[in-house]
């Protein structure tokens, strides 16, 4: 099975590029970053000062030897002050940097969601929501982790290594520095090499985690379909297969981590033992004091304890970068549909819509529309009918500019929609879609979504116009009723009326009804049709219909087949022609008679 990013080189081709991508999100907090770094250095200076004072305390006590002991009170107070200063500056660093860490995480999250909304419809139709959401969740979390590791682990360790190396170089024989530096270099090289090798297991874990999450989310989104076909076991089997691969990678990741830790411990033990032997020889030879032995031991502890954690931190840092790279990959996706430089606001005027010789294909090898031309005069209703796959719904997507036409052009009030901003274009068009998807929120929120600043009175007025106000107020919680995921707590007709109310509240010049009654029964359909007719008054209206009985009042009807307009005219004219429309009309009338109850 092919899994994306299973090998390390492809997983992190540009670690530095990923880190540079984070820089703009930190620039706003540059003052806090510098202050936090100053506190970091002060904390480490105090921390390294502790063993220096400890040496002086030991030497002072040892110098009294066999005489009456004199308490080195000043040194002891200094020892305590340095301990306090180290903790104080650490806490000040954490407090100052908290705003940077969480602020950057917030800004990255907002930037990613903004970019996802900018990406074109094609991307969202092809993406896997569960996997994308998990990649983004891990990516935004990794921003905080990365900053945490850098400021709280890596930089402090580097500062401490530099300070300790300076002390050893200034006070002791060069062999102490050589052994210490050799141990540190060996430790770092070993850690980097082994971490690079085992990183592929973490990357595979991420890939399988995203895949399993995608499968779980898809199965829950399609809950009813799973139940219809009794495929619960099938879904669990697919999910388990992905989790088994995740488990295998996770076990290998953990066992390779144990091997890493053993190697690190061996290097530390060798370095510490060697230095303690050198220090002990110096004490025996009289070139070093007992305080020097204590100092060297304390410095080694301060040097190697953070280095021990540095191995884990480096590993986690690589994981954070890998996680963040997936998120920045999303940010590097270019929107297919973009505003032209200098695009103007749409002047919708009276709302005339004109398609001129439009040609379009989702896939170049499978054209959808061929030389489609029509005009919807201001305030008039134009209906489009035809079999499935004729290209009817594509017209609405092109009008909203979810895709750009490959031939011809689309004009609104004489302006090519490619020359105006997408925001102003979509502000001028309202739609009642075939499949109304509602937010898992209140009815008030879902109707008011058309204009978030709308008052309760305006929302209720739109609901009355859509013939749903009485239904809403009859509910125990009224407009505060939560509709459930995708509006599942409402019937098809109720959801459609919420969609109509939303379109009415938006109050656009142009309305699109995309097979808005195709999933309703006859009784619900008539109620919705009356509502749609009232909503369409004084609007330029495009109706995409499956049932011909719903569009008999249209000013003009287009009949489409295989992406072409084969007939056009008003309902009576098309019936008189005895062409495609007349055959569809007769066929649907017979179907309705056959499905109607006897005596009705």
Please explain how this structure is put together.
The chain is α/β, with parallel strands linked by helices and 600 residues long. It has 3 domains: 13-331, ABC transporter transmembrane region fold, CATH 1.20.1560; 353-428 and 508-595, 3-Layer(aba) Sandwich (Rossmann fold); 439-494, no CATH class. It has helices at 8-11, 15-27, 30-64, 73-118, 121-126, 129-171, 174-221, 223-228, 232-285, 290-331, 392-399, 422-427, 443-448, 456-465, 469-474, 492-506, 522-536, 571-577, 580-595; strands at 353-360, 369-376, 381-385, 407-412, 415-416, 429-432, 510-514, 540-544, 556-561, 564-569. The strands form 2 sheets. A 6-stranded mixed β-sheet has the order 6-7-8-3-9-10. A 4-stranded antiparallel β-sheet has the order 2-1-4-5, covered by helices on one side. Strand 1 and strand 2 (369-376) form a beta hairpin. The longest helix has 54 residues, at 232-285. The two termini are 58 Å apart. The relative contact order is 0.08. Mean pLDDT is 83; it is low at 1-13.
């Amino acid at each position: 099975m092919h899994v994306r990013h299973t090998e390390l080189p492809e997983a992190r081709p540009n670690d530095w590029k990923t880190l540079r991508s984070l820089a703009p999100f930190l620039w706003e907090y540059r003052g806090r970053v510098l202050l936090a770094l100053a506190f970091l250095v002060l904390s480490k200076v105090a921390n390294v000062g502790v063993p220096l004072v400890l040496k002086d305390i030991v030497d002072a006590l040892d110098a009294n030897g066999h005489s009456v002991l004199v308490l080195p009170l000043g040194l002891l107070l200094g020892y305590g002050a340095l301990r306090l200063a180290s903790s104080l500056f650490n806490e000040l660093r954490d407090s100052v940097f908290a705003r940077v860490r969480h602020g950057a995480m917030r800004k990255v999250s907002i930037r990613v969601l903004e970019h996802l909304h900018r990406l074109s419809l094609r991307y969202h139709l092809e993406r896997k929501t569960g996997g994308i959401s998990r990649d983004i969740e891990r990516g935004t979390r990794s921003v905080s982790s990365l900053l945490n590791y850098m400021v709280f682990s890596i930089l402090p360790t580097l500062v401490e290594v530099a300070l300790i190396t300076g002390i050893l170089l200034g006070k002791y024989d060069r062999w102490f520095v050589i052994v210490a530096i050799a141990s540190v270099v060996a430790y770092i090289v070993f850690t980097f090499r082994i971490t690079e090798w085992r990183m592929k297991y973490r990357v595979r874990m991420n890939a399988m985690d995203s895949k399993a999450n995608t499968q779980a989310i898809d199965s829950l989104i399609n809950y009813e379909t799973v139940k219809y076909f009794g495929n619960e076991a099938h879904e669990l089997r697919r999910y388990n297969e992905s989790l088994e691969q995740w488990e295998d990678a996770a076990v290998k990741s953990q066992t390779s981590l144990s091997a890493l830790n053993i190697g690190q411990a061996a290097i530390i033990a060798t370095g510490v033992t060697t230095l303690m032997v050198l220090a002990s020889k110096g004490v025996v030879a009289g070139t070093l004091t007992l305080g020097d032995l204590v100092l060297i031991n304390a410095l080694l502890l301060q040097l190697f304890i953070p280095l021990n954690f540095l191995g884990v931190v480096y590993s986690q840092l690589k994981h954070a970068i890998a996680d963040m790279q997936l998120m920045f990959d999303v940010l590097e996706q270019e929107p297919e549909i973009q505003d032209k430089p200098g695009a103007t606001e749409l002047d919708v005027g009276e709302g005339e819509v004109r398609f001129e010789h439009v040609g379009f294909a989702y896939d170049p090898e499978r054209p959808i529309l061929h030389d489609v031309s029509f005009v919807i005069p201001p305030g008039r209703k134009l209906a489009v009918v035809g079999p499935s796959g004729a290209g009817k719904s594509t017209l609405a997507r092109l009008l909203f500019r979810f895709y750009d036409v490959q031939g011809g052009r689309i004009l609104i009030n004489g302006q090519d929609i490619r020359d105006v901003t997408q925001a102003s274009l979509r502000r001028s068009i309202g739609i009642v879609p075939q499949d109304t998807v509602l937010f898992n929120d209140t009815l008030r929120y879902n109707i008011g979504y058309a204009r978030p600043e709308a008052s309760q009175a305006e929302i209720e007025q739109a609901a009355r116009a859509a013939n749903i106000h009485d239904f809403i107020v009859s509910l125990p919680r009224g407009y505060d009723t939560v509709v459930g995921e995708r509006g599942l707590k409402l019937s098809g007709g109720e959801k459609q009326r919420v969609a109509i109310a939303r379109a009415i509240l938006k109050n656009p010049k142009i309305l699109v009804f995309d097979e808005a009654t195709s999933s309703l029964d006859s009784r619900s359909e008539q109620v919705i049709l009356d509502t749609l007719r009232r909503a369409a008054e004084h609007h330029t209206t495009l109706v995409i219909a499956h049932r011909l009985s719903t569009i008999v009042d249209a000013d003009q009807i287009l009949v489409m087949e295989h992406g072409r307009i084969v007939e056009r005219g008003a309902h009576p004219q098309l019936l008189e022609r005895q062409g495609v429309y007349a055959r569809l009309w007769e066929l649907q009338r017979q179907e309705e008679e056959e499905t109607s109850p006897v005596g009705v």
